[in-house]
Amino acid sequence: MDSTQLLKGVLDVAVLAVIDREDGYGYDIVRRLRAAGMDDVGDASVYGTLRRLFAAGALTSYAVASDDGPHRKYYGINKVGKQMLADQRSTWRSFAASMDSLLTTPSKTGGKR
Question: Out of 3.40.50.2300, 3.10.450.50, 1.10.10.10, 3.40.190.10, which CATH number does the structure's domain 3-104 have?
């Protein structure tokens, strides 16, 4: 199975969950997603997701000066984003339980027809 297709479907909720734990700037969020096991996540995908979530009103942003160069744009989750995250967590739990049931329940025919 191609994990990049799965990743596309869960990137919004993954980004919201990472920011819910702690505000972060783009590459920091990419790094935290990868550290959580999402090795295939692309920088551009995360930056696009951040822009989309910000435009949807789920995130706030603010600039922080950096000693290493230009300022960094940090993202934080707001009330709208927290509600989105809660809704998506519920949807995920239901979906994951359904998939787990499908994948762990043995067939009656043992896979033979």
Answer: 1.10.10.10
Residues whose CB is less than 8 angstroms from the CB of residue 4 and which lie 6 or more positions away in sequence, other chains included: 40
Given a cut of 90, whether residue 53 has pLDDT beyond it is: yes
Residue 113 confidence (pLDDT) above 60? no
Domain ranges of the chain: 3-104
DSSP letter for 107, please.
P
φ/ψ of residue 2, rounded to 5: -80, 110
CA pair distance 87, 16, nearest whole angstrom? 11
Query: H-helix or E-strand containing 81?
Result: helix 79-104
Q: What is d(CA 102, CA 27) in angstroms, rounded to the nearest whole number?
A: 36
Per-residue pLDDT for 101 more than 70? yes
| Per-residue tokens: 33 | 């997603």
pLDDT tens sequence across 39-49:
999 999 999 99
Q: Which amino acid is at 96?
A: A
